[in-house]
Amino acid sequence: MSKDPINRNKLSPRFWEKKPLSKLNEQEWEALCDGCGKCCLNKLEDADTGQVFLTRVACRMLDDETCRCTQYPIRHQFVPECIVLKPDNLDSHAYWMPQTCAYRLLWEGKPLYDWHPLVSGRAESVHEAGVSVYQMTVSEFETPEDDWEDHIIEEPL
Ligand code: SF4
Ligand code: SF4
């Protein structure tokens, strides 16, 4: 497992409990990401009920060893539809975000889990807790969309 690719240095202690999401600076906002990679799994949405189903079919840019996007700064050249999550669009995306996603948790007024790297102080703790996509995905390239239903999973919690 690689070291934490997210800059969590010199942040104010437990800043996420002291400021609303809309007041976070860029480093604080990015540091909220726990590195689980679950938002990079493809989902299926029932057109009638709106229910969202998670699959193990990963976006082509995801590396499930690091659980990170391999092309994050230039990802929109390859995946134009990749969401840029911000405080002002969280309302419309929170419903499909993973249940353990820090952005969703804080949006719901819930605390971060002890395994969150900001709490544990270690990037690996999200993988050790078994809540990341570490070594559990199949490739979007090798899995035709018609077969995605066969890869529906429960979110690792
Ligand atoms: S689900 Fe949330 S916490 Fe996990 S990688 Fe995506 S944005 Fe980060
Ligand atoms: S482009 Fe990168 S950040 Fe966007 S869904 Fe794919 S792996 Fe995730």
Automatic annotation (TrEMBL):
NCBIfam families: PRK05170.1-5, PRK05170.2-5. Coiled coil: none annotated. Belongs to the UPF0260 family. This is UPF0260 protein SAMN04488036_11183. InterPro entries: Puta_zinc/iron-chelating_dom, UCP006173.
